[in-house]
Amino acid sequence: MKKLISFAFLGAILVTGAGSCKKKSTSNNNNSNTGSIVEVPIDRSDTTTLTSAIPPLPISLDFMSTPMLIDTFATKVDEYITPYGFAKKDILKVNVTALRINIENSPSQYFNFVKDTTPVSIKIFVDSIGGTNHKLVAYRNNIPANVNQLDLTVDPADIKDYFNADYMGIYIAFYTKEMEGLDGSAKFRVNYSFKITAKMP
To answer: Where are the alpha helices (DSSP H) in the chain?
Structure first.
């Protein structure tokens, strides 16, 4: 039963609202001299629409052992770095600098369906599509009751190799809380910021 619901939920969250996606990038360093270090921030906001619900169950479902894909996007690295005069080979590192998840389109839906576990309640990973080498980028514990927005603590991991790929996946890991369901009409908006650090050629 766990497996059936897990696959149903995974399939549901793969549907993303491309129209709500927005990205921007600016440079924190205007020095384009050879050998200088530049930092380029990228902000992204994407909405995931559910197509089925998770009913309140007397058991806890384990999405911690097998994280679920909640966002897939084309990184379009070249689109951002070309104006700054460097290429992928010049990127030194890429870090997540902020991550927030909001529940939308369902006023009575909160994060109560996430079981508050110790030491971490929610983990966010990145990986290549279909990959098995998830890298932790953010986490959260102490989930408050009746909230529809969560700010996560970011991990300073370097995700350059994932970001340089054509596509990257964002995964979430957690346990469901007994007798707490998830409304099928709910939408998840994931807001995150990246920072590209590069050395000018």
So the answer is: 2-13, 77-81, 160-163
